[in-house]
Write a structure and sequence with these properties.
Elements (H helix, E strand, L loop, with lengths): L5 H9 L2 H14 L4 H25 L3 H8 L3 H37 L4 H17 L3 H26 L3 H9 L8 H11 L2 H14 L6 H34 L8 H7 L1 H4 L2 H33 L8 H20 L4 H25 L3 H4 L6 H25 L4
Length: 401
């Protein structure tokens, strides 16, 4: 437990119902062919999140504060703040409905209760955890949930017995089957998430305060980041490989919602409960971290205290959480808000990645802890891919593709 920290919050955030659905569909439709895209996503996430964590530990400020201080012109600063508030604040409120709904779907497969009641109970659980005002409590609960997810999905993969040579080939040999472009974009987009950069830069300061020597905190944060995001990649790998081994080559129309029942011929009655527990944990972890990330990003952008006990910090996560619970309990999806959030995040990801790379080379800010050449090269590749991803997402939303 002590080895894990804020990196696992990042994993908890990106392993949600959307990732489980995308990974399931990718494996069922394309087999192991797109595992390389997952590997790239994990490497890109580690590179960007390490930078965000280093920025937070060295400067003891969040990414939003760095954004505010980097724009001297009032108009540019206002535009940067508005973009962060819109993309992260409003966007996470829209995505929260999907997180709650995904957790509800998993819970409904275990307990035959009305979905609206389950959504309210899950929302109440997330509220109780966040209102505690204790970062350590939130972190430890998420550690348990992520490790539970890992166990569930890895055991399920082992039971299905996927081909190890085929998995290795898919990981190490990039190929792009016909019709797979959007799925690759979705895999990368569900792993490399802009709001996680804001979450990580702030959360590391909770885990490693100023009293901890900087060299120690940086070293521990790097291990935490690599290990935690690696676990997230392993979870996604397990879901993709399970779907590939069980459904690739068949005419099954697969989604995360139906995957549990469709695994029953292979795994027996236990399949339903295995996958349901994993989906419940995935939805619940994202339902907790999305409001938390929104609070860190919005409060930092607005110049408000980033403190669990601060009223405005609480109000931001409360609005995000209540929005998700309301839409999920009513059984509706805020489609217009989700499309807007996707467009905003598609625009925000390359901008934030470029900004992060520029900031991490500032000697006046980071001294000897600024980026080295190798990190800049890796970061440059990630920025190019992120820019292409953002452009493609915006064009696809506009109906060009």
């Amino acid at each position: 437990m002590k080895k894990f920290g804020p990196g696992l919050l990042v994993t908890a955030a990106f392993i949600g119902p959307g990732t489980i659905t995308t990974a399931s569909v990718a494996g069922a439709n394309f087999g192991f062919a797109l595992l390389w895209a997952l590997l790239f996503s994990v490497i890109a996430t580690v590179v960007l999140q390490e930078m965000a964590a280093r920025l937070g530990l060295v400067t003891h400020a969040g990414l939003s504060e760095a954004l505010r201080s980097s724009f001297e012109h009032p108009l540019l600063r206002s535009l940067a703040i508005a973009l962060v508030v819109a993309a992260i604040g409003i966007g996470n409120a829209a995505y929260e409905a999907g997180n709650i709904a995904g957790a509800t779907l998993g819970a409904a497969a275990i307990i035959n209760w009305p979905s609206s009641l389950l959504a309210l109970l899950i929302g109440a659980g997330a509220f109780a955890l966040l209102i505690s005002g204790k970062y350590r409590v939130v972190e430890r609960v998420l550690v348990v949930l992520v490790l539970l997810m890992s166990a569930v999905f890895i055991i399920t993969m082992v039971m299905v017995k996927p081909s190890v040579p085929a998995m290795l080939s898919g990981l190490l040999t990039p190929t792009l089957p016909s019709g797979a472009t959007l799925t690759v974009i979705a895999l990368i987009g569900t792993t490399v998430v802009p709001y996680n950069l804001f979450l990580h830069a702030s959360a590391v300061q909770e885990k490693w305060p100023r009293s901890v020597p900087l060299v120690q905190s940086l070293n521990e944060a790097r291990w935490d980041t690599g290990l935690s995001i690696g676990i997230g990649g392993l979870i996604t790998l397990a879901v993709m490989s399970t779907a590939a081994a069980a459904f690739f080559g068949s005419d099954t129309q697969l989604s995360a919602a139906t995957m549990a029942s469709q695994l029953e011929p292979l795994l027996g009655a236990a399949a339903k409960y295995f996958f349901a527990v994993g989906l419940l944990a995935a939805g619940l972890t994202s339902a907790i971290t999305a409001p938390l990330a929104a609070s860190y990003a919005v409060c930092g952008a607005m110049g408000w205290p980033r403190d669990f006990s601060n009223l405005r910090f609480k109000l931001v996560w409360l609005v995000v959480l209540l929005s998700g619970v309301l839409f999920a309990a009513l059984g509706t999806k805020p489609i217009a808000a989700i499309i807007f959030a996707q467009a905003a995040n598609g625009f925000l990801l390359p901008l934030i990645a470029i900004f992060l790379l520029v900031v991490m080379n500032r000697k006046d800010l980071l001294q000897e802890h600024r980026n080295r050449i190798a990190t800049n090269l890796l970061g440059g590749v990630v920025v190019l891919i992120a820019t292409g991803l953002g452009g493609f997402k915006l064009l696809s939303i506009a109906g060009v593709f």
